[in-house]
Amino acid sequence: MRETDAIVRRMADSGLRITEQRRMLARLFAEATGYLTPKDVFDRMQQVYPGLSFDTVYRNLRVMHELGTIEQIVFEEGVKFKLRCEVPHHHHHMICLQCEKTLPISTCPMPDTEVPSGFQVVKHKFEVYGYCHDCQEDRADKAGLPT
User: Fold this and answer.
1) Residues 6+ apart with CB under 8 A from 52
2) What's the pLDDT at 4?
3) What is the pTM of this model?
4) Does domain 2-83 have CATH number 3.40.800.20?
5) What is the C-alpha to C-alpha distance for residues 94 and 140, in angstroms, rounded to an integer?
6) I want to staple 145 with a disulfide (CB 3.0 to 4.6 A). Which of 42, 63, 125, 140 is the partner?
7) Which segments of the chain belong to CATH 1.10.10.10?
8) Half-sphere exposure of residue 66, counting CA atoms within 13 Å on the CB side?
């Protein structure tokens, strides 16, 4: 419940009206163990709020992302969101394509990246996709390969 309260407080501090729908949205992310697609969120919320539109859900996901309460990751099958990770400083992620486990990368490649003259960087993302140790073993087991 602490995470839910923190998300709601951040929304309120930014001037948003705190509705029961926004409380539920905060609770969904606070209780989720992994990533949620916009459709996942919509389907869960529509069970409680049948008249809710997908556009409303998506707008609120965008607001939560802009506030920094949730992170957006782009997978091949589309955009997914999850609660912002606990690492307090700027960082990037390694993401398992099978179980979606997310591990922080402690260094950022941007300071060493040469930016063309006249280009102003205002934000950036860097994610590495692959398979975690457990999923590598699982994939090898299913393929009958030695680990």
Assistant:
1) 21, 42, 45, 46
2) 87
3) 0.76
4) no
5) 20
6) 140
7) 2-83
8) 9
